[in-house]
Automatic annotation (TrEMBL), chains A, B:
It is an enzyme of class 3 (hydrolase). Mg(2+) binds at D242, K261, T265. The keyword Calcium applies. This is fumarylacetoacetase. Substrate binds at Q249, T364. The active site is at H144. Pathway: Amino-acid degradation; L-phenylalanine degradation; acetoacetate and fumarate from L-phenylalanine: step 6/6. Residues 28-129 form the Fumarylacetoacetase N-terminal domain. GO terms for molecular function: fumarylacetoacetase activity; metal ion binding. It comes from the Bacteria. InterPro entries: Fumarylacetoacetase (IPR005959), Fumarylacetoacetase-like_C (IPR011234), Fumarylacetoacetase_C_sf (IPR036663), Fumarylacetoacetase_N (IPR015377), Fumarylacetoacetase_N_sf (IPR036462). Its cofactor is Ca(2+); Mg(2+).
Amino acid sequence: MQLNETHDVGKRSWLDSANQAETDFPIQNLPFCVFRRACGGTAAIGVGIGDQILDLAAALESGAIPRSPGLDAAAAQTRLNALMALDRGEQSSLRKKLSALLDASCDGAQRERAAGHLVPMRDAELLLPVEIGDYTDFLTSAWHTERHGRFKGLQDPLPKAFFSLPVAYHGRASSIRVSGTHATRPWGQIRDAQGGVRFAPSEAMDFELELAAFVGQGNQQGRRVEIGRAGEHLFGYCLMNDWSAKDIQWWEQVLGPFLGKSFMTVVSPWVVTAEALAPYRGRMDPRPAGTAAILPHLAGGNETLDLVMEAWLQTSRMRGEGTPGVRLTRTNPRNLSWNFEQMLAHHTSNGCNLRTGDLLGSGTVSGASDDAMGCMTEMTSAGASALQLPNGETRSWLQDGDEVFFRARAAREGFASIGFGECRSRILPANAGDSAAS
Amino acid sequence: MQLNETHDVGKRSWLDSANQAETDFPIQNLPFCVFRRACGGTAAIGVGIGDQILDLAAALESGAIPRSPGLDAAAAQTRLNALMALDRGEQSSLRKKLSALLDASCDGAQRERAAGHLVPMRDAELLLPVEIGDYTDFLTSAWHTERHGRFKGLQDPLPKAFFSLPVAYHGRASSIRVSGTHATRPWGQIRDAQGGVRFAPSEAMDFELELAAFVGQGNQQGRRVEIGRAGEHLFGYCLMNDWSAKDIQWWEQVLGPFLGKSFMTVVSPWVVTAEALAPYRGRMDPRPAGTAAILPHLAGGNETLDLVMEAWLQTSRMRGEGTPGVRLTRTNPRNLSWNFEQMLAHHTSNGCNLRTGDLLGSGTVSGASDDAMGCMTEMTSAGASALQLPNGETRSWLQDGDEVFFRARAAREGFASIGFGECRSRILPANAGDSAAS
């Protein structure tokens, strides 16, 4: 993707909060969301800038941004899908217009018009931004896969196909929720060490730190997307917590994960566009020596998004103590063995049709080192060695009240640093009502 | 579910075609579809009767059926979802009104009004009837599972969890198409006996004969549906061909089926309601001696739908010869180890929310005997022993031009026999254009 003036590190906004070093949303970012004013009102598409949200439809209507029929219709929706389905040129042109409107050099009537359509983030409720038709979750970290394979006692912890294709499974779309939604600890069938099976609340709750991509333009059923054009179908990215109940998953899993994950998956509310992320690319980890060459239909370069991704834990006690939480993980998509272009090309290689709004998860983003593990299962060797938290608490698995939040930033020499906002969710106690019923 | 006058075997319609013994659509059936007149026009909801389709919205508007605001709005849609989400009492009341309107005793102005809104099936195009949010496919035939496990050389061909819970995986919703849509032979990664992997068209194409249920009213995320109430959430049923490319599936499968099935799944266009099927229930196959008792949250009786389900094959040569095809399979959902009430209760047991229009597949409906195998993989021992067809052709796997169609009928002493219509689809040659690209 071409870099242009919207990526310029020297660019500053007339909004002070957008020029602070720590903001996730400088003028170089301009991510999309769907929001509702806390005081009520309908859902609307917004653009993040500093600590404010620009109401896109209102800005268009007021003339702050030059209008076009396709853009007007897309901006008036209550999900991002129509905007995501627009021609890439039109999307890029919108980014330029937004960048110009919020630039420090914009003043007078234009700036005033824009200022009239800003809503402080603290006064807004962020909603699930996209209507997700199908959700696919990949498994692309060899580190995560190997560690899991070893816990299961597999002789060959990495599946044979791992470096030949990006392993994936279909996930559950209905239960995807936006950051801030809490997950009720699920009940399920759990097998004990003696082989007895009971129906009970999960005792092995885990988070999984993932990066996820939203499909922009889809493809026709029966026609695959060439690897060289796969990037054109990736609209933008968010963070994702693939909540998992490992004990449920271990017993049920014959044809892949099912109830161990389908109770809830949580995504961050901001869709950071592929165009905003264009400068931040890095080489993926090299493949092990002797690994077969990637087949031509998936040979798509060895670069991926270069982000620092973090998982944090705040227990109930930490909340009581006023502690913001403890960082558990610091990892990077460069630790993965496949990039999103390869995932998308593989997904369509059999003619499967992707639709605008489909969500592709990277799988747990784990790296080689102990502080780059993307889930508790890895950190505790599947519950065998408890995590020691700084306040004296320990965790083999997540407890009720534990809140997990993810952050991510992209940075590169000569470019601004942009962020993703938070993906935050808490474990709520299992429904007691189920006890009697079971 | 209560039986009532709509199930009465003595009931006849004023439409002769509905009174023929061989029709799938006597007045006791009244399945729903979405259709479009072949001469053009918009999609509309229809009711099948004999060889005709009653245009539901038009019949309501004309006063042929008593109106109600909820029903009017639902009938005016171009998918069945709103109708499926109605209160069960309202759905049952609609069935009674339709049954009365089409009954031989209905005459005069009412009959004339109804007759004015009939469209011959041969003049209509049947569309995908439901907007499917999530599609879940189960694996509930022990016969199918055991045979597959043996082909794979598994010591223990039946997974340990098989009789403890209905095994399932999430399927791909975007690629579900209606009967009459043909499947392009997919390309994929295929591993040969020497361990080499190539990207090529599948050489192991198979059908899988399934029964599938559409969810009517959904459930709230975090709240499971009790087994005793699961039936209230099942709106109706169709036939489903879970097209499979077994060679792609064998290599890719780590977390369940993915590209080996996601290129296309085909459903029959008629949704036969749970209420129409209420009389036709039979005992499921007994579980093997020594199998642990079903846990209380899934203990839901041992009955299921009693249907004769058939898979037929018509090769290109048979079409040329004017032969309608050869029957490959004759099976029954009674061969399965779990019923749909159990599948739905299990699916929601972790709090996963089902939505109106979600589709639940039974998995391949295979029985014990050689003529009750629901897929080619079983019939040919995974391609090892070719099928001998009556016209001298042989098949290890499906060839280009092969058309597979399914039929099913429900019958019970003292009740009319009702059918499902056809689920029909053909294998088209792989895209040649992909050859150069690979």
